[in-house]
Amino acid sequence: MFTIQKNNTLIMINYYPTNNNLISIDSILSIIESNVICLESIDVYPKNKIKCGYGSKLLKHIISHCKTLKYKFLVLNVLNNENYLINWYQKNGFVKIDELINNRHFSMKLEL
Question: 63 near 83, Cβ under 8 Å?
Answer without folding.
Answer: no
